[in-house]
Amino acid sequence: MNSKFKGLGVAMVTPFTVEKEIDYDATERMVEHLVGGGVDYLVLLGTTGESVVLSDDEKKDFVEFVIKKNDARVPVVVGMGGHDTAKLLKSIKQFDFDGVDAILSVTPYYNKPTQKGLELHFRAVAAQSPVPVILYNVPGRTGINMTAETTLKLAHEVPNIIAIKEASANLNQQSYILRDRPDHFLVISGDDGLALPQLCMGMDGVISVVGNVLPNEFSQLVTSAMNGKLEIARELHYNLIEIIDTLFLEGNPGGAKAALSILGVIENNLRLPLAPISDTLYYKLQILLENR
What we know:
By secondary structure, the protein is of the alpha/beta class. The protein has helices at 24-36, 56-70, 85-94, 115-128, 139-142, 148-157, 171-180, 195-201, 210-213, 215-226, 230-247, 254-262, 279-291; strands spanning 7-11, 41-44, 76-79, 102-106, 133-137, 161-166, 186-189, 205-208. It is built from 13 helices and 8 strands.
C-alpha cells in the first residue's frame, strides 16, 4: 500500500482569482497539468498551497473539487497539521476522508515542543487519523527539528505512520533514518535542489514544488534516479537547478505561481501576507523557462 507514495508527489498550489478567491477553473487546469505531466500523487493544503490563509470551508471545498477532477487517477494526500494538538485532532475527526489516501502532518510550529512532545503529538494524530500519516519535518519553517531518533521511534512503533517528508536538508540525519527505518517506512525528500543526492542515498521519492511548474521534467529526474539511470538524472538536475533556485529566491509559492502564470496555467495571485515576486525575478524566470 505504501508504494503508492513512491516517486513524485507535488505540493500543489492553490490558484486564486484577482479577487483572491479560489480559482476553480485554474484548479482544474492544474490537476490536468500535473496528472498529465506524469506525477505519482497530489499533495493538497500544504505550505505551497497557502493552507494557512484558507478557511475550513475553503479547504473542504478545494479538496472535494480536486478529488472529483482527479477521478482516482493518482493518490491524493491532504495536509493536516498544527501547533494545537487538541484542535488538530478535532479537525481530523470532523474531516471527510472520502477519496483521501493519506495525510501529511507537519511538526508543530512556533511553540517549539521537545522531542517527547513531538512523539506524543504524532502518536495522537496517528490514533485519530483514519488514513495513513506522512510526517513532515521542515525546521526552516517550524523552528523545531524532529531528530532521527524521534522519527525512527514513531516509524517502528506506530503502524499508521508510514513515511516522512524530510526537509531538514541535513543529509547526516536523513542517512540515519534511511539506515535504521523499518522496511515499510518511506523517506521522502522535501528539497527539490537536493533530490538527486537524496534519491541516490535511497529515498523513495520527492514531494516537490518545482513539480508544479515542470512535472514532466522533474518526474523524469526522479524516475531516472530511482532506477539507477544516474547519467540521465544528473543531466536533468543540471538543467533544472537554476530554475529551482530561482523559484525560491523570494519565497514559496510566490516563485511557483509566477512560473505557472508564465506558462499560462494559472494567474499570479497570492493572499496576504504573501505578495507576488518582483518584476526583475519574474523576468529572470521567464527567460529561464523559455531557454530550458
